[in-house]
Amino acid sequence: MESFERNWYVLHTYSGYENKVKANLESRAQSMGMGDYIFRVVVPEETEKEVKNGKEKEIVHKTFPGYVLVEMVMTDESWYIVRNTPGVTGFVGSHGAGSKPAPLLQEEINHILRTIGMSTRQSDLDVAVGDTVQIIEGAFAGMEGQVTEVDEERQKLKVAVEMFGRETSAELDFDQVDSL
């Protein structure tokens, strides 16, 4: 029985190949026409400031070395394509012998995505600069604001909100607003 629900799964990869697996998987999803089954591929990373020889520099660490997250609809075909992507050694939570893996729980993936500054759900929000949106979550919930900036890549937007007679800019995730 195949479910056509989008879920997040964890892939085990050769350590150091996480970004290569991400690139391979994204290009395979495109070239094999699996764009409706394989969505976001994420290598969770954190940036830390480190002082070395008196100079401050930013160093990017993989949050989970050897693992890549993939948002996908689990079908026989999508499972086969992902599993056979170069650098992928398997799915975490699969019991082998062709069994399908268990997806991450929504709370788990939301926590990971928020930690790395990504939106927690892929949104089909269709807004442009100048549009008015209703804020549905967060500190400005219940207010309306005007979109001043849209960042499709990070799934974030800046909204001008009027508070106490002044205009304030708020950076929000796509899933924190509804278009009007």
From TrEMBL:
SUPFAM superfamilies (UniProt xref): N-utilization substance G protein NusG, N-terminal domain, Translation proteins SH3-like domain
Listed CDD domains: KOW_NusG, NGN_Bact_1
Domain NusG-like N-terminal positions: 5-116
Pfam families registered for this protein in UniProt: KOW (PF00467), NusG (PF02357)
PROSITE patterns cross-referenced by the UniProt entry: RIBOSOMAL_L24
Entry keywords, A to Z: Transcription, Transcription antitermination, Transcription regulation, Transcription termination
Residue ranges occupied by any KOW domain in the UniProt entry: 126-153
InterPro entries, per the entry: KOW, NGN, NGN-like_dom, NGN_dom_sf, NusG-like, Rib_uL2_dom2, Ribosomal_uL24_CS, Transcrpt_antiterm_NusG
Family, as annotated: Belongs to the NusG family.
Biological role: Participates in transcription elongation, termination and antitermination.
Protein name: Transcription termination/antitermination protein NusG
Natural source organism: Enterococcus diestrammenae
